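Re: beginner question about structure tokens

> Can someone show what the tokenized structure looks like for a real chain? I only ever see the sequence side.

Sure, here's an example I had lying around. Input first:
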Amino acid sequence: MLHHLLYKANLLLLLSCSACALIAQVPSACHKLAQHRPAAASRTASHRQDITAMAACHIGAQHRTAAASRPASHRQDITAMAATSTAVDSESTTNTPNYSNFDWHDHWYPVAWMRDLPVNTITKITLFDVDYCVVNRGEQDPLALEDKCPHRLAALSEGRLTAQGYVQCAYHGWSFDATGACKSVPQRPNGAQQSTMLCATACPCRVEQGLLWLFPGADAENAKPPPRVQEMDDPAFKWSTAVRDLPIDYSILIENILDPDHGLFAHQAAPFDLYTASRDAPQTVTLAETSPGFFSLSSAVAATPKLAATKEKTAKDTTLNITGALTGISTFRPPCTIATGRRDVDGETKFQACFWIAPVGVGRTRFMSAAVGRLPFSVPRWLQHVSLNNFLDQDTHLLATQQPNVLAAEYKAATGGEPMVRRKIYKYSSPTERLLVEVGKFMDAAVPKTPNRYAEPLRLLMQCPDRSTTLDRYSQHTQICPDSRGAVRNAKALRFVAWAAAATVAAGRVARLGSVARAAVSPAALGLAALGYAAHAFVGEFSFKYVSAKRDRDLRGIPKVFADERLDE
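And the corresponding structure tokens:
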């Protein structure tokens, strides 16, 4: 759902920010990205066939719907839509997925882009409110240990990686290999390996499509591999990645990403309308349970304007001028993977917006994304982050205001021994929400079983922080993204040099001309000052900036995509 906006914004920013090219040189030590190509071509071919079938079936359904008589009541449409299950695709084994089969311990979880993990440096990450220390070991396989030394329970992430590749605790020097085996207790020479009680807890990990995945369950060897995005295995596609830690609960963020209806209003972005539904262009929901506990929830809709269209503004709107029979398809493969894009009848696409949502803990989620497209060039990563951070700011605080109400309802249900039913606390009323109804059913069954969900029940009663906290880009993004940190560092250096040079040029002119006023109109001094200001503004993009006044300016753009006059229709 984001891919149209990301694509457009990235290209515009790339053209308009050419003066910032000096910033782009980020130290090469930031990363090495290993892209693993799939070993089994048959799996990719099968997935493409499923997508092709989904697009073709949806287009056929569109023609049948257009020929059929319309229901008398819009409310009846929504009720029937929410109550009706759709046919499943060819991979499914049942027409009614049993979401109670879902087990969080049976799945792999993405926790970081490998390029964001400095080589041979210990990094702390969190999953299900459990801390782990992970290490990108370059050409070797990565390692992951629970972030707790068995000696005195200090954090291993405060330690270092030794010359032998061991994780060494900074407290007393105990050292552990990738399996968690204790290799050295300095105070007890040659005695470390005599007892397994001295071992740290290792967590299975692997790299797929540039992401580091952890498996917190007990049987990683027999677990299904993480889901793949087929376009990311195609050399014809280029992709740029992003990451941000959001103070939003996993369940709320998943629903948000799969909800195109909010795009016209929260983001003032017309391309979202290509994924909305209407009575004339209904949403088709496809459910699949390929094996017990493994699901796929997909929506398909004609990729044409619905809400954003008016009598005066349809095909003339170049942002939504669609040619050919394209279907907007969004697929959620629990627990973490979402892919959205427009596909033709052959299942082909030119662009995909992909998301990986890691449940860090109650009220905390790591958002990772990739813009995957047939682009003639790769967009600089830091430039994409400027665009995406502005985009995320537009609705993150909205989700933070929603969160206390949703989690309080969950707390009430959990402490009262009753199941939480989202259809009872939400008022679904849009034809686009058919998928969200199904996602809600999955959340109702899965969320209460989340590891450590109710270890500290009062966390469900957290209040909404102020905007400067919920939208703090520096702590949520800049600190964990070496590309952005490098760009900011270079921009600060450029700012200093430009302003210093501007002052030097101006001072020289004053000395020669004897007039401050005449010196001030120096083209060189003004140009250098402007360059310094541009670098200064760029630095500001990587810390809190989405104040209420900026929100209000954005909201004034809503009538451009949905006119106020239409509210009375």
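Each token stands for a local structural state, so reading them left to right follows the chain. The two ends are 27 Å apart (CA to CA).
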